[in-house]
Amino acid sequence: MSESRDVIVIGGAVIGSAVAYYLTANPDFAGSVLVIERDPTYANASTALSSSSIRTQFSNEINVRMSQYGFEVIQEFSSMMAAGDHRPDLNFHPGGYLFMASTEDGVETLREKHRVQRACGADVILWTPEELAHAFPHLRVDDILLASYGRSGEGWFDNMGMMQGFKARARAQGAEYLSDEVTAIGHDGQRAGSVTLKSGRQINAGWIVNASGPRAALTARMAGLDIPVEPRKRTSFVFDCARSPEGSARVNDGRLPLMVDVSGVYCRPEGRYFLTGAPPHNDVAVDPDDFEPRYEEFEDIIWPALAARSEAFEAIKPVNQWAGHYAFNVLDHNLILGPNPQMPNFIFANGFSGHGLQQAPATGRGVSELIVYGGFRTLDLSELGFERVLENRPFLEKVVI
């Protein structure tokens, strides 16, 4: 006897679970939802290995507004996901982001971004080098021409808490979760009709949602489709600091922000330690099962940049490290959301390029609207559609870290 579900979601981390939550929470949706996750431990999921931050400091309006909605969800998460007496807390740290520019081109980029952000109502300000030095006295700012700081609506939070909250509520609302792996997708070139699982089961589908993160292209190929998304490795380091500057800020109750140095190295507080990382010098696609950290990046890239930026970071030592993957959209570093017109019941939610956790709420809501209503009802995400891939028409995001 054949099985069938109205919607099958391939990938059960934060994107897939957000899709399942918003579908089952939609009063106009009465169908069945099955989420298939190949690794129920989520040990190597991009969600679990993320730096878990959210910002409004993007260069295009859609990304700003997606993060603004993500922040609204973070603020209301405990009540949205409440089950009985259990009210999950994402432990949000309102540290803000700090971007700096040391060239005239960089200054112009910050100013262009700021105009977009302010037009969206984001609480972002520009600082002169003198204002920057006053706010964060541990920083060396001799080379800085301008800085951009998010006073509110930015920070970091519990990554797995968000995913598990969406998952728990989705299940409570009727979504099924299955630990298995999709090995084939049945299709006729115009419609995706079923999935075949490693266990041997075959399940018919009305809709299929590709939420498989860095494996997005592998999933798409099973349906005879292509998507310009590949796994790019990012190594994160936690370090101890002999003379921590945390608490020295003259803004935000002494809390330091997530600082993005002009070198591309980022750094933020992580409890008594600091979390840091940087784009690798040789940023190429990797095997989706390659999670070996690039240990040399700390000595070769990160420590020199941090030591040059602050005397406080001259004496630091790594205490932990791990490697995760960006689902990197090589076309334009932005999410691809929606169907390929060739196969309208196969929905892409892929290519977040490091922004998936913060964009999960808006993505889950958007996919729900596409399936239930055939179009977006709240935030118009149509510019992120697959058509731009077919037309080789990038929708660029300038600020990818």
From TrEMBL:
Pfam families: DAO. Keywords: Membrane, Oxidoreductase, Transmembrane, Transmembrane helix. The keyword Disulfide bond does not apply. One of its GO terms (cellular component) is cytoplasm. The keyword Zinc does not apply. It comes from the Bacteria. One of its GO terms (biological process) is mitochondrial respiratory chain complex I assembly. Residues 6-370 form the FAD dependent oxidoreductase domain. GO terms for molecular function: oxidoreductase activity. InterPro entries: FAD-dep_OxRdtase (IPR006076), FAD/NAD-bd_sf (IPR036188). The chain crosses the membrane at residues 7-24. This is FAD-binding oxidoreductase.
